[in-house]
Design brief:
There is one protein chain. The chain is mainly alpha-helical and 120 residues long. It has a single domain (2-17, 24-102), classed as Substrate Binding Domain Of Dnak, Chain:A, Domain 2 (Up-down Bundle), CATH 1.20.1270.180. It has four helices and no strands. Helix 1 packs across helix 4 (83-106), helix 2 (23-44) runs parallel beside helix 4 (83-106) and helix 3 (49-74) packs antiparallel against helix 4 (83-106).
Length: 120
């Protein structure tokens, strides 16, 4: 099974870091981290209702992109029995990337006008 997952990860263009024995668990772990960071960004935007609205809009658009991209990568229902594994690997990878982006927003320096999240 490990070899099949590693092959699926390579086929999906993912790194070996996502080729674990349980892609669904990897996705859950990445999703928990994303949710934690999202809540932290949301707190920082408490005094900026327009910024919070933009965050919600961006997150919803990102989720739609992630799901569509991973359906595309996995071949959707046409992808055969490995399709769910490829989709989970893709979702874990993109979710981790999004968490990294939110983490970056939380580390912006004071006065960084390119950062949508105020410094702590």
């Amino acid at each position: 099974m490990r070899l099949a997952i590693a092959i699926a990860a390579m086929a999906a263009g993912l790194t070996a870091a996502y080729a674990s024995d349980d892609p669904a668990a990897d996705l859950q772990k990445a999703d928990r981290e994303l949710n934690r960071l999202y809540k932290e960004v949301e707190k920082r935007l408490a005094d900026d209702p327009a910024g919070k609205t933009r965050l919600v809009h961006a997150q919803r658009a990102w989720i739609a992109f992630r799901d569509a991209e991973c359906a595309f990568q996995s071949g959707g229902e046409d992808g055969g029995s490995i399709a769910p594994t490829i989709a989970a690997l893709c979702q874990a990878s993109l979710t981790s990337d999004r968490a990294d982006r939110l983490h970056h927003y939380l580390k912006c320096e004071e006065g960084d006008l390119s950062c949508p999240v105020p410094a702590d």
